[in-house]
Request: fold
Amino acid sequence: MTGETDLVTLISNMRPMLDPEPYVFCTFVSRSIAELAAYDPICLFSETEGVTAILPAERARELGLAEAEWFRRITLTVHSSLEAVGLTAAVATALAAKGISANVVAAFFHDHVFVPEERAEEALQELRNLTDAAG
Reply:
């Protein structure tokens, strides 16, 4: 399965779904990816400066990092191709118009948008509005 590439189809079928779990973006310079895997990250990314981990807030708390800003994940449940053009821009633009930050992580099947926890419901509604407007 290669996923959808047509932008109108992607937006009209993205069916955003809000994950009830809060997440924390953390960075580590002295821990390996293998060591961090024990904390159930939903994402690990190695950068020159260190490893970024997106951890469930409860797991971040175990590391003393839960005081950082909490985010909620909105999954765009349409199977988007990694070669699709414009979906991230459309989502970010819609949320930016409302002053909501959007941290997008593209995985193989879906795009995931991390938004500040206190604005998650508002962000979800904006993405639903975007979907309705495209359909």
About this structure: The chain has a mean pLDDT of 93. The first strand starts at residue 16 and ends at 28.
